[in-house]
Amino acid sequence: xxxxxxxxxxxxxxxxxxxxxxxxxxxxxxxxxxxxxxxxxxxxxxxxxxxxxxxxxxxxxxxxxxxxxxxxxxxxxxxxxxxxxxxxxxxxxxxxxxxxxxxxxxxxxxxxxxxxxxxxxxxxxxxxxxxxxxxxxxxxxxxxxxxxxxxxxxxxxxxxxxxxxxxxxxxxxxxxxxxxxxxxxxxxxxxxxxxxxxxxxxxxxxxxxxxxxxxxxxxxxxxxxxxxxxxxxxxxxxxxxxxxxxxxxxxxxxxxxxxxxxxxxxxxxxxxxxxxxxxxxxxxxxxxxxxxxxxxxxxxxxxxx
Amino acid sequence: xxxxxxxxxxxxxxxxxxxxxxxxxxxxxxxxxxxxxxxxxxxxxxxxxxxxxxxxxxxxxxxxxxxxxxxxxxxxxxxxxxxxxxxxxxxxxxxxxxxxxxxxxxxxxxxxxxxxxxxxxxxxxxxxxxxxxxxxxxxxxxxxxxxxxxxxxxxxxxxxxxxxxxxxxxxxxxxxxxxxxxxxxxxxxxxxxxxxxxxxxxxxxxxxxxxxxxxxxxxxxxxxxxxxxxxxxxxxxxxxxxxxxxxxxxxxxxxxxxxx
Lengths: 305, 260
Ligand SMILES: Cc1cc2nc3c(=O)[nH]c(=O)nc-3n(C[C@H](O)[C@H](O)[C@H](O)COP(=O)(O)OP(=O)(O)OC[C@H]3O[C@@H](n4cnc5c(N)ncnc54)[C@H](O)[C@@H]3O)c2cc1C
Ligand SMILES: Cc1cc2nc3c(=O)[nH]c(=O)nc-3n(C[C@H](O)[C@H](O)[C@H](O)COP(=O)(O)O)c2cc1C
Ligand code: FES
Prior knowledge:
Chain A: Residues 4-284 form the Dihydroorotate dehydrogenase catalytic domain. Chain A is of the alpha/beta class. Chain A has 10 helices and 16 strands.
């Protein structure tokens, strides 16, 4: 499968298909159903310093070709993750990316320091969750705040590459991507969920207790493709593209606009085997295009008239 | 997994019964478990996007059955999947009802909540239990599969809101009168009904297992969209309805958080 082998920020992945944070639990949930060793990598559910119980129910609602979620970054906390989840996950032959967040810059740094010394392959900093008031989005919606939190974490992280995951809930994503690169990020993940809302016309109440939620799934793909394209125009560091990928063709689109790897999120709910089908599809496609490696596709969108 | 739809039978305007052939599934499923289902049309359209959870009615040879109520887009597409077409589904998910021997058992069902109770009724009866089914619905249309139950139960008590069949009452009314006499109760139906049944059981000191419905995205424990709250000692803990459930000890469920 060398045609699919990619190197992202110095880490080699057997293929460029990674499961997106929050949609694949700690990886172990799916191990019963698919061979997770066939995945390029797994980005685990966003980890914070302390355990977080998340938002009240209901937290999810299906929308047209997508879903809204307001899970609220529920997770077991970094210590329990390292003790109870990571050793089990490491038994599989796949790259482990740990998505993390904090309520304050100090907390981001605290979690980053701990993870930097853990047996993981890469960190992914989430500054873009629309479902928690503190942290997350506050750092992802002001470029100077983004620069601050990224550079503080950068100082704390010495051993691992750092991806920063951007929010699409901004008018222009480019300054955020640039701020990340300038502050020492090794790569960009884009995009997180789009802020959305759905109302039950019979009860006149929002379907989700948090009122708004993050929109994901095929419905957001065109927005995500556009944003990855924009990001690729302003940064040189690798981009991990995501948002609505459900077939290998979707993944190929992300490569063309500048992604070096992709993450697959909501599609895992639709069919736990979809990621593996995407790996197969991409391999056949790369070969049929006469590529010696899938990375030759990165940024090759033809914009000529 | 994939299976072939052998039958997709219309029971009335509200309910259908689907029989699916899949030896692999039939060998592994247990009573009270559920399955996430996606039709071929859904696969093609990407709308509706997510799979839909349904309780397993029973397994016979290489086939299993689903009883489904027409609700929205997903169940509409299920009606449009004819016999002979292929349907996709997960393996059997969740924990089921535990089987017991030689006990006096009550089953309490509300509407489509009857779906996961037929199989456990058969097993209980085969294991020497005396089984009484309390079955409530809005009207006659909701009282489905009752005839299939008859060989596997000792007593059937039907209630409807409008009295179109059985007693005009909530299912909890006749159940409450007899509750203290049972060794164990299994219930599935609307959350308010399950709450009422559980409260009656707690009062009478009868163990009660309830099968809960929560909106599910993944059905396999990853998304954390299906959280319910249960008491463990002094603490209130979170459980995923899909993995730690859908069957829970009704006396432990924090009903205020579940009935919203
Ligand atoms: C463990 C479990 C077992 C179930 N067993 C059965 C069964 O045997 N027979 C049956 O008829 N129904 C059952 N349900 C409910 C069934 O899943 C919903 O009626 C169905 O998903 C509705 O889909 P729809 O597309 O027609 O409706 P829509 O309203 O279009 O669905 C929109 C979204 O809401 C979800 N949803 C809607 N109603 C429910 C509900 N009551 N519970 C969970 N999610 C819901 C859907 O899955 C979907 O994601 C069960 C639910 C759960 C959680
Ligand atoms: C239920 C759910 C939970 C999520 N949790 C996280 C999270 O903890 N951290 C994070 O960075 N992104 C989280 N996301 C965002 C996804 O990782 C991904 O960026 C987004 O869903 C878009 O991709 P998709 O359309 O393929 O799902 C979550 C998404 C969903 C649907
Ligand atoms: S439905 Fe996803 S965790 Fe239960």
